[in-house]
Amino acid sequence: MSTNSFRTIAPAGMLAALCALAAPVHAQLPPPPPNATALQAAVFNAVAKMCVLDLDLPKNPPPANPQVNDLHDQCHAIAVANLNVMPADAGPIFGPAPAGALGALQQVSGNEVSTQGALATRVSAGQFGNITGRLNALRLGSAFSLSQGLSARTDSSAPGGSSLASLAPQTFYFDRSAVDPNAQEDQLSRGTLLPVGNYQNPGALVGTTYSDSYRYLADPAGGGGLGGNVPSPWGLFVQGSYNSGRHDQTQNEDPFDFHASSVTAGIDYNFGGAVLGASLGYDDYDAGFNNTGVNSTGGSAQVKGTSGSLYGAWFGQNWTLNGIATYGKLTTNLSRTVKYTVTYNTALDPQADINDPGCAGAATCTVSVNRTLDGNPDGRSLAVGATAGYQTQAASWDVMPSLSVNYRRASFDSFAEHDPNDPNDGLPLFFNDQTVESLRSILGLDLSKPVSTSFGVVTPILRVEWDHEFKTSVRMIDAHYVFDPSCKNGVCDSNFLLPTDPAVGNYGVAGVGLSVTLAQRVQAFVYDEILFGYQDYHSNAVTIGLRGQF
Questions:
Q1: Residue 159 and residue 187: Cα distance in Å, rounded?
Q2: pLDDT, tens only, 344-390
Q3: What's the pTM value of the predicted model, to 2 decimals?
Q4: pLDDT the model gives residue 231
Q5: What angle do CA 83, 35, 255 make, to 5 degrees?
Q6: How far is the C-alpha of 222 from the C-alpha of 226, rounded, in Å?
Q7: Cα separation of 523 and 512, whole Å?
Q8: How far apart are CA 89 and CA 493, in angstroms?
Q9: Where does residue 471 rank: exposed (0-12), middle (13-18), buried (19+ CB within 10 A)?
Q10: How far apart are CA 82 and CA 79, in angstroms?
């Protein structure tokens, strides 16, 4: 008897009618239980076919391979436990299977592998989110960071009395108190507030070029005494995000909680009205499967990604365009718990088990299993996206509707599971290559309002978006049992297709954030968003960024 399974023999007693049904049940493949899900039905058909054609005794004598012997015992226990045979005049009727037997089908299906695809597309989403945050920070704050801490004052006879978001063209002033402690805030005048340029759109990256502004600041005649210290257009940034949530139980996928972290570091060059940059990213996404007691009994899935990205943006008076491309390598770890207890009628399967013949002669036999199966496929990810936005103003707020198109693709190599605790385990699965694709359009609306403070410019940000997914079809994952003796060149009697949940076609995202531009040429950014309208999936993400010029 295996150390991770045991069998309980019930008192003997067998109905003659059930004995008579044994031969026809094994002569042809029985149908799946009528109350089985599509996933459970697919696994039942594969298991029953393998049992009847390849593992039945005495037609197929037991080989010397202990894994095949274990597979024989388990497939017979699971398949027969799902047969609820009810005699009828026209022949046997197969009724609903008990919940425990259906749960065993779910347990040996390997449906947890679908989680890798969901996490893989989130890996590229993490890098996109970080880089988008960087571009938003540039769009919202770099007009202010040009002067290393300018004050939000309009060109009026009394600087400081007007809103930054005025629709009229603005002349901004550099506050000397940011670099000269002798200049007091309450003594500001046109001599201490240096004009740095006119901006029609204060939310854009720049309304004039860097050279115009910096040439003015560097000119001693400008009245500021800043000399020739022209700031560099090079910028560095580090951005991180944390995402957590849960996925509910569905017919095809087990429930899990997840948490994820993404870090992006990059460098970019500011041309004045445009920016080009490159970044490196690292992502770590972890999911823990919930123990529901029947269909899901625990385990975990992890996807780690390292990637490189190129990005660029152009900021006009009103229009904003940006694009991002990311390519990365994925490493994964899937560990699933297979734990079930099934009881079957030996009248439907009178042959004795190979590894544990103790149930021979009993009316019923109970089988319990508690095992762990691991797999570590490698993968790759690709993501590209573009956004166009138009910025205007309303009620002193900057308003920018936008339209984005994003494409993501993640692919995984084929792999075979293994049991780290029992080398004679016959339940490991082999999964063929799989690819996950997403093509989305995103209609967004951003609201922001720069506010001058004593330490810099603070910009609150509100955003709401509506996402439409074009690739919503069910994804099918090809799998078979590693130790199926019928396998030849990947074609096996136990081949089956694992259906995944279809992607949700329409859902929304809402977020709130804050951008702060400080006098020391440093800009910070924080943003929090939630997902809504996505069936069976709940998520909250927080992004934090820091940037500076050098």
A1: 11
A2: 887 777 666 666 666 766 778 888 899 999 999 999 999 999 999 99
A3: 0.77
A4: 64
A5: 115
A6: 9
A7: 17
A8: 32
A9: middle
A10: 5
